[in-house]
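Hello forum,

I keep getting stuck at the same step: I have a sequence, I want structure tokens, and every attempt I make locally crashes halfway through. Rather than fight my setup again tonight, could one of you with a working pipeline run this one for me? It's a single chain of 143 residues.
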Amino acid sequence: METTTKPLTLERTYNATADRVWSAITDVSKMRQWYFNLEAFEPRVGFKFQFAAGCEGEDDYIHLCEVTEVDECKKITYSWKYEDREGMSYVSWELFPEGDKTKLVLTHKGLETFPPHKDFTRDSFNGGWTHFLGALQEYVENK
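Reply #2:
Ran it on my machine without issues. Output:
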């Protein structure tokens, strides 16, 4: 799907190997420690997963996702939409080894396809992804 708005892109460099970061973003038991409480996850094209999450003190949104691209230890992309809501977006995690460190580039495109709502603004997504990238850093560097 072509989008008209610039994707949300965040970059972080972690003091961890690409293998360690890849494992943290694709192994469901590790993901549960810093990301969402997923029932299941597999880094396999076509794998569908869902989870409930929302802003504190408000109703949860059911997130419906499907893995659309996997390049082992380099990139994973999945669709990201909400049950009973308009819109479809895609989240990509790309890893770039830099010696014993890893640069991660997270790209979330298609945000403009969601209906106008305070929880679906670019700033809201930026805040959420900033939180999770910080949690990932804590996990890969200190666990």
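The longest strand covers residues 61-71. If your local run keeps crashing, start a new thread with the error log.
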